[in-house]
Amino acid sequence: MTTLLDRIGSLVTNDPSYGDGSPLGRLTDAALVVDAGGSVVWAGESRNAPAADAYVDVSGRCVIPGFVDSHAHLVFAGDRSAEFAARMSGQPYEAGGIRTTVRHTRAATDEALEANLVRLLAEMRRQGTTTVEVKSGYGLTARDESRALALAARHCDETTYLGAHIVPAEYEDDPAGYVDLVSGPMLEACRTYARWIDVFCETGAFDRDASRAVLDAGVRSGLGARVHANQLGHGPGVQLACEAGAASADHCTFLDDADVAALAGSQTVATLLPGVEFSTRSPYPDARRLLAAGATVALASDCNPGSCFTSSMPFCIALAVREMGMTPDEALWSATAGGAAALRRTDVGRLTPGARADLVVLDAPSHVHLAYRPGVPLVADVWKSGHRPS
Ligand code: NIG
Ligand code: FE
């Protein structure tokens, strides 16, 4: 059983061997064939399209790969809107707010945590996100971190162990003891549910040595590394991520020339999270500097109850274009193929044969409208693994 999506006004494949040779590999008057197994089997100009078992008329609209949101914290309970309101009247963002969510999360039932996770994943899907990475990090005990990851693993294939999010209150006087817990028994309880390990390397969270110890323990257990790096000020996070061979260094707000050079010379993707700067009223990272140096840049939401409670990749694209100097083409690439690179995935973030048929039909003639029409719900249809949810 194959389905032909025909009369696509603008098709973004993210494969430069298609179309005009630009990184987006964009075709006009295009068609796409997907099979029952959930893969793309053909992409090209409409006039060359092969016959298929079923036909869908896209009516001249734009089709893009589903967004790959490579950074989100979705297993939590509680509301921090009062903290947001206080920030908007001049209070600074402080990493310590994480402990508020930890208290609520520990007190929540499995059912409540799962219901919130499912609600947020559905909210993301409606906005075009078809792959999501979900972190733990609001449990901070072996039991609470492993239950967060077990819940996440039921609903997504990209799960990240973030026991090293912050030192919890009960370890305030023994941060080294907490690092031992995170790298030992907590890791042991979590590793079967996680693909990745992450650490918040920042003043007030984990310093360079503690972060390295946590990452090394995770990598020894078979997890891939990622790092929350250089978010609130300049620090060792980006260098550490590159040295440890992390798939991604996330935030990258405060970088010096050596950090930019390290990212450009490594396989570590610079993942920018402009919703955080929006929601904390902070300076945005310099995307142009990273791109000019040759670094791979991803965009992600960082959806979490504290620093940024948006689940919208179109909003992040609009911010990246307006506030970080990215072109609409670069921003779309970073929110799709860039996110896939940050998760070391080659099966998502593109629409060419062999890729998963995860795609978005936009109520717009081109992807440029994602930034040109900020805040407008342009996502008309979302296909996941070749299926259009009814
Ligand atoms: O990515 N940086 C650390 N963690 C989250 C914020 C979590 C929170 O404030 O609850 C982030 O911004
Ligand atoms: Fe984060």
Automatic annotation (TrEMBL):
Record keywords, A-Z: Cytoplasm, Histidine metabolism, Hydrolase, Iron, Metal-binding, Zinc
Pathway per the UniProt entry: Amino-acid degradation; L-histidine degradation into L-glutamate; N-formimidoyl-L-glutamate from L-histidine: step 3/3
GO BP term, pick one: L-histidine catabolic process to glutamate and formate
Record: residues binding Zn(2+): H71, H73, H228, D302
EC number assigned by the record: 3.5.2.7
Domain Amidohydrolase-related: 63-367
Residues binding Fe(3+): H71, H73, H228, D302
Cofactor: Zn(2+); Fe(3+)
Any one Gene Ontology molecular-function term assigned to this protein's record: zinc ion binding
Catalytic EC class: hydrolase
InterPro entries linked to this entry: Amidohydro-rel (IPR006680), HutI (IPR005920), Metal-dep_hydrolase_composite (IPR011059), Metal_Hydrolase (IPR032466)
Pfam families, sorted: Amidohydro_1
Annotated N-formimidoyl-L-glutamate binding sites: Y138, N304, G306
Role noted for this protein: Catalyzes the hydrolytic cleavage of the carbon-nitrogen bond in imidazolone-5-propanoate to yield N-formimidoyl-L-glutamate. It is the third step in the universal histidine degradation pathway.
Protein name listed in UniProt: Imidazolonepropionase
Organism annotation: Haloactinopolyspora alba
The organism's taxonomic lineage, starting at the top: Bacteria, Bacillati, Actinomycetota, Actinomycetes, Jiangellales
